[in-house]
Design goal:
alpha/beta; Glutaredoxin; 5-stranded mixed sheet; two-stranded antiparallel sheet; about 15% strand
Length: about 210
């Protein structure tokens, strides 16, 4: 029998803990992935509800197809000068009613076309009337001066008239005949004078 004592067990030094910043991020767990999917679905639902709400609000009194309906009358402050303008002030005259704002980029593309065409048609009894909507009054005045707009605009500061006419975006233009009936509506920028002239022929035809 050997007198040698058994070898002592090997001692392994403990590895010092790594700083938290060196730890690798764990892969997304199944529950986290499901949470992201649920969040995406909820966001889609919220956006859908918001779109429906805006559409309903924008449908206004006229709806989205106002052809053949009487244009709602209104009375709003002038953008420039004192007093109010009512649509009924122009009873018996064809009216081009253009909804716009100085902050609207597409409105800047359209403004020179409206300004030039109005000058060409005013002697034929056609009235152009702008509706400046949810805007800063001074910015709107500067806009009209920049683009040489000489016809009047009313100031729809809270956008209530836009809602009444079912306007969903800017610019938007209504073509109203001498009897106060809407004969056409153009959504978006009027691209050229020829397009505008074609609409005007619809409300000036005897």
């Amino acid at each position: 029998m050997s007198d040698e004592s058994p070898n002592p067990p090997a001692v392994t030094a403990a590895e010092p803990p790594r700083p938290l910043g060196d730890e690798e991020a764990p892969p997304p767990s199944g529950s986290r992935t499901r949470g992201m999917v649920v969040a995406g679905v909820v966001l889609a639902l919220v956006l859908g509800v918001a779109w429906v709400a805006v559409s309903v609000m924008g449908s206004g009194d006229l709806g989205q197809d106002p052809f053949g309906r009487a244009a709602p009358d209104f009375s709003l402050p002038k953008l420039r000068g004192e007093g109010n303008i009512a649509l009924s002030d122009y009873a018996g005259s064809p009216v081009v009613l253009n909804f716009w704002a100085s902050w609207c980029g597409p409105c800047k593309d359209e403004a020179p076309i409206l300004a030039a065409t109005e000058k060409a048609w005013r002697d034929q009894g056609v009235v152009f009337l702008g509706v400046d909507t949810t805007d800063n009054r001074e910015d709107a005045k500067a806009f009209e001066e920049t683009f040489g707009i000489e016809y009047d605009s009313v100031f729809d500061v809270n956008g209530e008239l836009s809602v009444s006419y079912g306007v969903l975006g800017y610019p938007e233009t209504f073509f109203i005949d001498a009897d106060g009936v809407i004969r056409a509506k153009h959504v978006g920028v009027l691209p050229d004078a020829e397009t505008l002239d074609s609409y005007l022929s619809q409300i000036t035809a005897s």
